[in-house]
Amino acid sequence: PMTVSETSLPGVRLIEPDPGAKEALTRCLQESGCRVAWLDSPRECPCAGQIEPPAAIVVNVSAGTGGAAELIGACRSDSDVPVIAISDEDALDERLAAERAGVADYLLKPVARERLLRAVVDAVGGKAGEPFRALVIADAPDTPGALERMLVEAGIAVQCLQDPVCALEVIDVFQPDVV
Known about the structure:
Mean pLDDT: 76
Strand content: 15-25%
Structural class: alpha/beta
Number of helices: 6
Largest sheet: 5 strands, parallel
Number of strands: 7
Radius of gyration: 18 Å
Shape: elongated
Strand order of the largest sheet: 2-1-3-4-5
Distance between the termini: 27 Å
């Protein structure tokens, strides 16, 4: 199981109004070595001067009344800390608003432990030592092979596809940095 050392992750600010979800997410993060500070609303972020600046913010974007973009904006108003959005439902407009607002990741509840930890580690730069990952999707038979060789020579981990229908499945497993 993935763990994060306290020295590499100073803390996570968790914004989750639901007590049950807050407890489960906190347990998951703490068991992996994260220190967690709780807030009930992102509007508390700028006023939370007593809290050590977090390495990342995890916020439930479905819990607010202002929409995902406004919640993420409130979280980031006091810093450029990466924000990981968690949502109760997979609504395209909410996901797009979160992406446009600059979230580091967007997760759906129930959040799997490993997926949450991967999102936090990736958001705070935990990919150090791992190669950059590129997913190449091309419909011309010659393109993937030539591009793959060039990228591999540059030290990039590459996955090639000729069928774009398989892309979402491959993205979930391979987790590329760029497509």
